[in-house]
Amino acid sequence: MAIITIDNIEKVYNPDKIPVHALRGVNLEIEKGEFTAIVGPSGSGKTTLLNIIGGLDRPSKGRIVIDGKDISELSDNQMIDFRKEKIGFVFQAYNLIPVLTALENVEFIMVLQKRDKVEREARAKELLEAVGLSDKLDKRPSELSGGQQQRVAVARALASKPAFILADEPTANLDSESTAGLLDLMAELNRKEGITFVFSTHDQRVIDRARRVVNLVDGKIDSDIRKS
User: How many domains in the chain?
Assistant: First the structure.
């Protein structure tokens, strides 16, 4: 069964003024364990699509089913709770909390889930070790490189044991070495742990590593290529 089902999604901004059609009848299924890149030129709708999958935005029309749940039926508060449990996010700007340490940043989602303190600290340490930062537990974001901050963001995204991870331009602020390290990490997590990743990107380095590339043009799927 697909972990993400997008059924005839449309998104129109400013419908009562000058309408902007960001998505036009998009249909897409993502299976568990996929490593998929959603690509396209600026304005193609890729970030809008990622935001709708993540429940950060609502479609104007259509239906989206996440892990068997039709999220279009959820209230705003229910959607917040659903995101906390089911969806991990990695953003271009890292979005770490500046006053918290790496350990505390990873723990934060588990604090919101009201998980036991001992349990969440143990899991946060385990995840930071998995992303190669076991020696940076007490460092704040300002004391970490861009690549290290993004690794903390990946660990944080994994903390809630989500159904999948959405990564919006995760390499945009990284140099070549940091990008290669981050993609190696994500590919290893995908291969060994079966973690599903969906990227929004224009970075050719990410596209080259993806096993499926969905190309959006003017809010429609122009091509959907699965690599051998």
Answer: 1
